[in-house]
């Protein structure tokens, strides 16, 4: 398989997952939910191979990520064209180098004619959800189902609890 086709394939699967448990009124038209694989891509800023135990790192304790990794596919040779937030996120989501998708510098945006992971996966009957840091522009070219529950920015005042922690403390769930 050519590198370009692999990158596109990886882009189609990135940051996406089937979300049948989130919406009770959603169902696949032709297949049962159990006949399709779930896809989950975890991308973290400034996370290196030495951080996660699944890559023999020692800087983080991640038992749930380790469990997911033991039951699925793990990428251990992923390379990006640029080490900046928006260009690398757009590269992963479009399968195109940043210079080709239009987001070749940070705080820029992709061209308006770009297709991304949610576009391709929706044609296959999937829903693509995204939570946490988004930093993909324009939003119209990345039609994810945006889910709350994690900080949407990478930097916040660490003395202030996140919204979901406050919700849990107040409502107990």
Automatic annotation (TrEMBL):
One of its GO terms (molecular function) is arylsulfatase activity. Keywords: Hydrolase, Signal. It is an enzyme of class 3 (hydrolase). Residues 1-24 form the signal peptide. Its EC number is 3.1.6.1. The keyword Hydrolase applies. This is Arylsulfatase. It comes from Sedimentisphaera cyanobacteriorum.
């Amino acid at each position: 398989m050519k590198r370009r086709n692999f990158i596109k394939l990886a882009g189609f699967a990135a940051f996406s997952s089937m979300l049948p448990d989130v919406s009770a009124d959603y169902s696949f038209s032709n297949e049962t939910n159990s006949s399709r694989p779930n896809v989950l891509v975890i991308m973290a800023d400034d996370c290196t191979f030495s951080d996660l135990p699944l890559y023999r790192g020692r800087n983080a304790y991640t038992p749930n990520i380790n469990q997911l990794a033991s039951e699925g596919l793990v990428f251990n040779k992923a390379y990006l064209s640029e080490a900046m937030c928006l260009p690398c996120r757009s590269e992963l989501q479009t399968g195109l180098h940043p210079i080709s998708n239009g987001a070749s510098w940070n705080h820029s945006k992709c061209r308006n004619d770009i297709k991304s992971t949610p576009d391709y996966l929706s044609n296959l009957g999937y829903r693509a959800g995204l939570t946490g840091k988004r930093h993909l522009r324009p939003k119209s070219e990345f039609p994810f189902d945006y889910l709350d529950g994690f900080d949407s920015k990478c930097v916040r005042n660490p003395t202030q609890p996140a919204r979901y922690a406050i919700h849990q403390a107040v409502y107990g769930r």
